[in-house]
Amino acid sequence: MDRTDEVWTADLATGITVSWVASGDPTGVAVVLVHAWAESRRAFDRLRAALPGSVHALALDQRGHGDADRPAGGYSLAEAAADVAAFLTAVGLTRAVLLGASSGGYVAQQVAVDHPARVSGLVLVGAPRSLQGRPSFADEVDRLRDPVDPSWVRASLAWFPLHQPVPDWYLADRVADGARVPAHVWRAALHGLCDAVPPTESGRITAPTLVIRGAEDPLLPAAEEEELCAAVPGARLLTYPDTGHLVLWEQPDRLAADLTAFVHGSA
Fold it and tell me: pTM of the predicted model, to two decimals?
């Protein structure tokens, strides 16, 4: 359940309407939370609950996800980044720290490349340096049909083994997120991510950057995240022991503490 009693909507200049929630003092440091592929703003509920009031956290549903519009197109990485920049404008933020989880961190990197003046800092949580290529599960995604079966979504969680306990209600919410995403969005968003030129190869990121990875992440080995840090001047890497790819799911309290320390030092 969202911490706030109110879910807001924003009409973006990119032509879609998205839903979003906020917590913390509106005069505090603004942090926009960018969720992963096939998730929603609700993936950040546990993180937001652990943040102090001094962090003004805003979590939005990306195009095709959660309660956002689900158009037929617009799922390239550049278009995802444009949506986030348009969201900042729609909610009256000149700039903000962006926290992106998993592929949401890929989107956040692209925002920092395409709209550098809008990004005061980046926190990249289990985020790749590159997604080029076809993942092993792409064939399964290409075969999806509507309505997406929740049992298939639950089985897909095995792609990302967990190393820390995660509440059953939270896992059920993530399954519900995935089941709500139309099959065409599952496919188009995945292809948009995998077909894109990696952000750090298409431009320069100048925002202060913190990279956080799980030590047991089978998808992003340490060398990959070290390469990401090397591609972003001054980026710092934190590794969480006994944690897999889904750092946001497994370590929301530690992530909240590290995010808070980062934003109060960089924003």
Answer: 0.97
